[in-house]
């Protein structure tokens, strides 16, 4: 068997910064309300001609460069997104084409805010068996396109961006001290679909639709469900929470992150938090946070990194990685 070793991480954020004060100019909200409830002070918003694939391509290029890998070596691209450029083809094939990659396969995974953990797990399965050798896993979103900008209960929470990692399958004897993805757990429960969804789509309204959310219900489930998969990956990896060097959760809301960390007994110093400047970028939030942690020198080779996310569906999942 092989293990999926992370060779590089990269990210891209649109240039345009929109602060809470900018939102309060046209919305009945305030910087104080948003910061107190979510920890968010600003978010990036893509220009009209800046598509999800453009963000993903920029993040992928940085990840390849940081990993010292050329695009021509990649034989698998998995893009996690709920805001694709087109209903079809997959955003992943736009990325593949732009990077000039002629071999292998490219497809999208749709698991909303858990999308990156889902995409990473899917790529890991291909690399573990040797079916693919080198993979790009990308989370890229332009959630600004599906927000109802008159609904203060949702539009203040989200932003645009992309993050990516490059993985390489390397021979492994399964020891958790070896570098690479150690374990993954994915879950979903469709009973919760109407707590967080988009009220449009090709086969229903023939429109893109807008994001709708019952925020309190999401909050109530987020911590409990996250803990379930986190316990699962640690059990699978034979690891305890004290062994974890970095917790990189989905960046939806600082209060959810704090409550999850408290339940796990994780110190603040071990958590990578980017929600203050990125807001919730859905599938992009974890790879954006990973890239920040790696590129500023906090996450180092050999560190044990725990990823966790919950999103619409509900979907949820966790991954444990020896960086
Ligand atoms: N500005 C000012 N007031 C607001 C705003 C706003 N942007 N939004 C809502 N309010 C008002 C409401 O209208 C309500 O007013 P009322 O009492 O007069 O009716 C009041 O604030 C309280 O509203 P609640 O919805 O009860 O506020 P709550 O304290 O639950 O906070 C929040 C809302 C931040 C959405 C919270 O429920 C939450 O964090 N939920 C988690 C959802 C989340 O993060 N989702 C992201 C996607 S899911 C994921 O990625 C995991």
Structure description:
This protein starts with a strand and ends with a strand. By secondary structure, it is an alpha/beta fold. 31% of the residues lie in helices and 26% in strands. It has two domains: 170 residues, 3-Layer(aba) Sandwich (Peroxisomal Thiolase, Chain A, domain 1); 143 residues, 3-Layer(aba) Sandwich (Peroxisomal Thiolase, Chain A, domain 1). Helix 3 packs across helix 4. The strands form four sheets. A five-stranded mixed beta sheet has the order 1-7-6-4-5, with helices on both faces. It has a four-stranded mixed beta sheet with strand order 8-13-12-11, sandwiched between helices. A two-stranded antiparallel sheet has the order 2-3. The protein is globular, with a radius of gyration of 18 Å. The chain is built from nine helices and 13 strands.
């Amino acid at each position: 068997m092989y293990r999926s070793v992370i060779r590089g991480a990269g990210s891209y954020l649109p240039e345009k910064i929109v602060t809470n004060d900018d939102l309060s100019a046209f919305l009945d909200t305030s910087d104080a309300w948003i910061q107190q409830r979510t920890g968010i002070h600003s978010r990036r918003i893509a220009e009209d001609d800046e598509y999800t694939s453009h963000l993903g391509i920029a993040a992928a290029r940085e990840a390849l460069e940081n990993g010292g890998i050329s695009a021509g070596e990649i034989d698998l691209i998995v893009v996690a997104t709920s805001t694709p450029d087109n209903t079809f083809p997959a955003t992943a094939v736009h990325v593949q084409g732009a990077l000039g990659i002629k071999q292998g396969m490219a497809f999208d995974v749709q698991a909303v805010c858990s999308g990156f953990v889902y995409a990473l797990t899917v790529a890991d399965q291909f690399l573990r068996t040797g079916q693919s050798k080198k993979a790009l896993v990308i989370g890229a979103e332009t959630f600004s396109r599906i927000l109802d900008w008159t609904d203060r209960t949702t539009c203040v929470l989200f932003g645009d961006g992309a993050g990516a990692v490059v993985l390489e399958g390397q021979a492994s004897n399964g020891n958790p001290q070896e570098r690479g993805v150690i374990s993954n757990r994915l879950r979903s429960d469709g009973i919760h679909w109407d707590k967080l969804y988009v009220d449009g789509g090709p086969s229903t309204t023939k429109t893109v639709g807008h994001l709708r959310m019952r925020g309190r219900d999401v909050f109530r489930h987020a911590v409990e469900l996250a803990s379930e998969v986190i316990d699962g990956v640690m059990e699978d990896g034979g690891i305890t929470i004290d062994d974890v060097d970095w917790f990189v959760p989905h960046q939806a809301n600082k209060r959810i992150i704090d409550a999850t960390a408290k339940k796990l007994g994780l110190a603040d110093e071990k958590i990578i938090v980017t929600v203050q400047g990125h807001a919730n970028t859905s599938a992009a939030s974890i790879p954006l946070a990973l890239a920040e942690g790696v590129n500023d020198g906090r996450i180092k080779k050999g560190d044990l990194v725990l990823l966790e996310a919950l999103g619409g569906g509900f979907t949820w999942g966790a991954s444990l990685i020896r960086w």
